[in-house]
Structures are given as C-alpha cells and as structure tokens.
Amino acid sequence: MPLTAAQKDLLIRFDTSYSNGLSNESASTRRRASGMTNGARLTPPVDCPAWACVLLPCINHLPSMKMFRLVRPDDAEVLREGHWICYDAASLVPGDIIRLNACDTVPADCTVLSLGMNLTDETMEEAYPIGEELAVDHKLIFGEKKPRTTTMSKELTCEPVQFFCGGTVLEGSGIAIVTAVGNHTLLASLMCDGKWPVQGDISKELKTENPTDAQFINEDFEIKKKLLRNEELV
Questions:
Q1: Mean pLDDT of the 25-35 span
Q2: Which of 88, 86, 85, 94 is nearest to 41 (CA)?
Q3: Looking at residues 218-225, what average pLDDT do you find?
C-alpha cells in the first residue's frame, strides 16, 4: 500500500519514519523542547486540584466533566524504534506513529497514513481489501453528524484524513501520524475557548474538512498552530 504525496510530506515535516517511528531519544527531546516534561496532559473543562474534587465531589458530576470522561483518551499504541508498544496517551509527541483499531478513543490529533494493523510497503497489495474503510465518530468533539472515513482506493492508497483527539473509532483499523497532543489538540482549544461541549455541528466553522493534498495539510497546521514549537523539528 503506497503512501500519497501528502502523507510522505507529513513524514518529512515531522521528521519521522513510517516503518520505525521515533526513537526514544527523539521523543524525549521533543517533549522537553515543547515543555511537556511531565507528559501532554489534556486539561479538563473544570481544572481543579485533587483535594478540591474530594471536598466538592459535585464538580465531577457537572455535565462538562461527565462528557470529558467519555472522550478523554487513556492509552495509545505507538511505534517506537520499530516496535509497537502501549503508552499512556499523555506520553505521545508530534511525529509519533500510532495504530488505531475499532472501539479505540483517538489519543491525539492525527492524520491517516495507511489502513490495516500492519505496516505496509509498495508490494503489499492485499494488505487491506479495496473498499474497506476506517471510520471515526467526532460527534462528541465538534458535533459532526456523519463519521469521518477513509477508504482503500483502487490505487491501493487512502486519503490522509484528519482524526481528532477524543474521537471514537467505529470500524476498521489504520496507522496514523500524530500532529498535536494534549492541550494543543482541537478538543483542548474548544474547551479553552468555552465552546465545548458543543451544541450542534460546528465542523464547518472549524474548517476541519478532510485534506486531500499536502498544501491543504500544511496550511491547516499553520493556521491552527499544530506544529511543534521547536522549529528545527519541522
């Protein structure tokens, strides 16, 4: 299953490898450079010390906090130094290669590279059946009514569709590149702006349409400031 020009461009921009992922050293360097030494924590809509939640348990019963628990990612399957391992979602950094499967919560903002659970190359034509798709529901994130999908084409490629932290994988599986984590995700920005939980479909307002070429992806990342803070890494 070959990668499209847009997908190859993403790998170059994030200085990562589709077949090996990041090295542990590179991941640590990126974490330090972006100030995430303690991990990319996703701040809840009502952020308070643990002791306050104990004294005021009603905080955890607020509608926004109940919704947050439904979309907050716990873990992720990430490719580091050529090996798939399970990490906390907060351990991810931009440029990580992750694997998504049915029923997973999307652990970070990401863009699809290939379909199926296995890394593919130009010769693996039967790795994922033509017409099969990967579908993710973002209704709880920004109200998008229909699942966002990408499908294996006759050219044995898939569109570099963007999925967002907190989405739910409805069916299929795939491999994606992480573009934003923790408080730099779209979900975090909506909470910060007081727009979450959402009322209705705001996907058009956010301009989160599926990208189909490298130029769109690059412009979208610049607008949303989704790239690494360390310019040398992008």
A1: 90
A2: 88
A3: 40
